[in-house]
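2024-03-11 09:14:02 INFO queue: dequeued item Cupin, len=62
2024-03-11 09:14:02 INFO validating residues
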Amino acid sequence: MIAMDILTDLFETLRLRSLLSFVANLRAEDAMAIPAETNVVRFHLVRRGGCTMEVPGLPEPM
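2024-03-11 09:14:37 INFO prediction written
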């Protein structure tokens, strides 16, 4: 039996790649700026607590 990994096939077809840039432990008073890039989709995971994101061009923080 041949195992099929549909997600791997899909990612390879779409030429999607992943990269772990950093892991950060931030506190309430911390902030970070992430530069805009073309052809890049960024995902962030907040494991505990919450966060606010400010996006240029949007009137209110998210």
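2024-03-11 09:14:37 INFO annotate: The longest helix spans residues 6-14.
2024-03-11 09:14:38 INFO item closed
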